[in-house]
Design a protein that fits this description.
Pfam families: PCuAC. By secondary structure, the chain is mostly beta strands. Helix content is 11%, strand content 45%. It has a single domain, classed as Immunoglobulin-like (Sandwich), CATH 2.60.40. Strands 1, 2, 3, 4, 5, 6, 7, 8, 9, 10, 11 and 12 form a twelve-stranded mixed beta sheet that branches. Bound molecules: copper (II) ion.
Length: 183
């Protein structure tokens, strides 16, 4: 089944609040997202994988790179692996899969040449400050409120295209595209 299945998870969004209990902002952000009726509930399925809330952040002038973030759940019994990501040549030169890691006292990002394992039965979150996708050689600005399409290739599940909803430059999750932050 390679066809992306797009489901509206309006009610399920409420239940995911529990899964994010470790994130003190989750409840606050979700209520805001629901308030403005955003795409925070976007969900895409391929094989045993469920990809939720893919988003990016608006770029600042002359910003050379952009981020890509989402949550992926492996509902299957075999590990899978995100091995590549891509987008159109007029948006970015190429995409990489990155992690943040301490090098001495400094937090740095680095590419994961072997990709990112999505263990069976587990959820992996790509988020600011953690694992993320990087649009390298950005050729046009990422505009808040718009979206860009990227492809994700998994070793077992295959390739799926998903839109990244572009939020504010400091967005911590999907659904912030039309919000103004006071901080
Ligand atoms: Cu990066």
């Amino acid at each position: 089944m390679k066809t992306p299945l797009i489901t509206a998870l309006g009610l399920a969004l409420l239940s995911t609040a529990g899964a994010h209990a470790g994130n003190e902002l989750a409840g606050h952000e979700m209520s805001k997202a629901q308030h403005v009726g955003m795409r925070a509930d976007a969900s895409y399925e391929i094989g045993a994988l469920r990809i939720e809330k893919p988003f990016s952040r608006a770029s600042l002038p002359n910003q050379p790179v952009g981020g890509g973030f989402f949550t992926v759940t492996n509902t299957g019994t075999e590990d899978d692996r995100l091995v590549a990501a891509g987008t159109s040549a007029d948006l970015a030169d190429h995409m990489e899969i990155h992690e943040m890691a301490m090098e001495g006292q400094v937090m740095k990002m680095r590419a994961l040449p072997d990709g990112l394992v999505i263990p069976a039965g587990e959820t992996v979150e790509l988020k600011p400050g953690g694992y993320h996708l990087m649009l390298m050689g950005l050729k046009q600005p990422l505009v808040m409120g718009e979206s860009v399409t990227i492809s994700l290739t998994f070793e077992k599940a295959g390739t799926i295209e998903v839109p990244l909803a572009i939020g504010a430059p400091n967005a911590k999750g999907a659904g912030h595209g039309q919000m103004t932050h006071g901080n």
